[in-house]
Amino acid sequence: MSRIIAGAAGGTTLTSVAGQATRPTTDRVKEALFSRLDAYNVLTGAHVLDLFAGSGSLGVEAASRGAATVDLVESADRAAAVCRTNAEAINSVLGWTCVRVHRSKVETYLDRVPAGQSWDLVLLDPPYPLADAPLMAILGALAQHLAEGAVVVLERSARSGEPDWPVGLARFAEKKYGETRLWYLEPA
């Protein structure tokens, strides 16, 4: 069972998506990720986008730790319903609507983002089988919506090689945790 690790809603139990359709980020990886993001000082007051949100656990963790807004984007009905449940739980603890859920394919959501909309932190945890070409197209579309100093975190299988990053994004760090690798990107 997943939980919020720290912040205003620390200790809150989260609902998980039943079945094998999603691959939840382990508490170990989540804790390491958010420790690094805290060190980068990108959470407080951040506008956060969580793509391929699954249960929304990464996005709601960001909300608990002081993000100004969090948008969870998930296309699967069952997972989007779990995102709504977890968003409601965190919003209730925070006392306002910080986390919003968008039931949409990531590509469709990014196509509809208005010019001028930007995020300070983007979390992507796509299905491991997603090929590099569609993933790089998503990252390319996202690059135009990043605030100055933004951080993008991509979670992939540790067996996946480093992709050729799209124009507009550059890798500045990466870290492996067992079967998971986190890639840290910034606007180029």
From TrEMBL:
Keyword Methyltransferase attached: yes
Enzyme Commission (EC) number: 2.1.1.171
GO MF annotation, one: 16S rRNA (guanine(966)-N(2))-methyltransferase activity
Cross-referenced Pfam families: Cons_hypoth95 (PF03602)
InterPro entries: RNA_MeTrfase_RsmD, SAM-dependent_MTases_sf
Name by which UniProt lists this protein: 16S rRNA (Guanine966-N2)-methyltransferase
Keyword tags: Methyltransferase, Transferase
Taxonomic superkingdom: Bacteria
Keyword Methyltransferase part of the UniProt annotation: yes
Name of the top EC class for this enzyme: transferase
